[in-house]
Amino acid sequence: MKLTRVLFAAVFLTAAAFGATAQAQMAGPAPPPGVPGAASPTLAPAATPAKSDADAEYILGPEDVIEIEVVGQADHVRSRIYTDGTINVNLIGTTKIAGMTPRQAADHLAGLLKAGGFYANPRINVEVVSYASRYVTVLGSVGAPGLVPMNRPFRLSEILARVGGVHPGAADYLIVTSEDGKESRYLIKDVASGQGDKDPFVKAGDKIYSPVADVFYISGQVRNPGPYPITQGMTLTEAIAKAGGLSESGSDKGAKLTRAGKKGKLNPNDKVLADDVIVVNERLF
Question: Could you confirm whether domain 135-210 is CATH 3.10.560.10?
Fold first, then answer.
């Protein structure tokens, strides 16, 4: 059935082209583009449908799937871009379109159809139906890790929203690694603000990683002892708050600390580090 449709389309387009050529010969040379009456008699006078901003900015690449329409014709052609950046289209043959935007590809194909004598002034519409060549990779403690297609420029916050945000046990920052290996860290609270460099545009090929948060362990005179994730710059006071606050007999002064196997003390404004073991003391009075 598919082969029959392709053969039918080829015959239909060839016949239409022959008719267009014959009418053009009878009517004289076709006027140049932009002059009234320049459109081929086989094409509808309607303007080419406007493309979305996503398609206008997207750069076509291998494995993308596009749909090609000659405006005014019933059949559309769907084609996957080969790994060498080319497509194979009836009447045109093999031509390279990788590296073009959909609009540029449409103009390129229209030029080939016109140069081949198939249409006097064809209007082509190219739409991307499957984005595969440009994407970012999102891994780690997020709702839906995987590949996110880049059909337009995205900020880091938008990519984070697309994967369902971070898990409760995730760190409070994201690591973005570019294709050249450059690594940058962004606090999620800054990314959420959506302001300038704190919420940058990501690029195709970037890898975004949400690590599991480092934890500390707290026990003693707190309401909810246990392990808790650390946020940047966390103090003992904030750590106690994470654990539900002090018990009725608890004190935040001179908490016992075990850090890297060494014993010590931690005061309210002292910083908590990964793997710290904190024991909150009981009040003397």
Answer: yes
